[in-house]
Predict the 3D structure of the following.
Amino acid sequence: MVYSARTLALLLAASIAVVTGLFLSLVENVDQSALIVATIISFSSSYILTFVILEFLIFREINKIYKMMGKLRKKELSGIAKEKSGALNPLRNINEEIFSFATLKQKEIDELKKLEAFRKEFIADVSHELKTPIFAAQGFVHTLLDGAVNDKNVRTKFLKKAAKSLDGLDELVQDLLTLSHLETGDIKMHFEQVDMRKMCEEVVEQFEEKAEKKKINVRVLADHHAKVFVFADAKRLYQVLTNLVSNAIKYSVEHSEVAITFDISKKAVTTFVTDSGEGIPANHLPRIFERFYRVDKSRSRERGGTGLGLAIVKHILEGHNSKAEVQSTVGKGSVFSFKLPRAKADDSDSSDAS
């Protein structure tokens, strides 16, 4: 600013003192000493009052605004701190509006930075995941083209490996498409009454062979005669259970158990998928539902999978106004759970149960 509060206060106080002195000089019977005292008092009181008003109510607040505007221009919004203003400050509302604007813009900038980092990480991950099966299949095919195709045993072996790599690539692409459709809302949920216990038993049957190879006992722990009905999209719910049970078997140690249990209340049914596997370190738990996130990348890829299963689970459950939760202890295992609204059984089901 060209003028400071002190300079303006001096000018205004001098002006008021001069006017006061001239006015009093026109009054009869006023001696010289009284005139000087009145002028000094007028100057002093005017200076103090004007300086306080200008400095504390105007200039300081204007300087704060200029400081904020400077940071806005330099995009240093994170350094802006809210400063209290007096109740009588005429510029308080302007100051608060600028601070609110700066805070909002800083949040937008932080969010954009997160999205940019996430985009870069996602591109790197998906490139790596696509590269692995493509290079494998490419290697087998080129080996056959180089002459191995004439050997029947080698040809069959390499074609099977190439087919397996391409099947993995197809699975990855399908999961990416599913996840993309879930995020964009292209997949609409069709809610209906679903027998959760029956669906869990179907999922367990699907993984019987895989579980037997690892000597893992997978079972549904629920009263056989009790109906566990929930209100959900049957197809997507089956996908959730498939991913959770598949992961539980994949990361469980041999000769252990994977159990599916239920906690039934009046309004909701909570489903638990419990394994006795390696467990997940606490620092990894907040990120395990992210796309391609793996606790142990090298060992996870050896076990197979696309790295998108839990991300799909998360988005499907969000479509059901629910969320996946996990509790885990390293060396003891993990418990994945989710809650869905309970649905009443049909009359026919109730009569069968009785």
The CA atoms of residues 137 and 161 lie 7 Å apart.
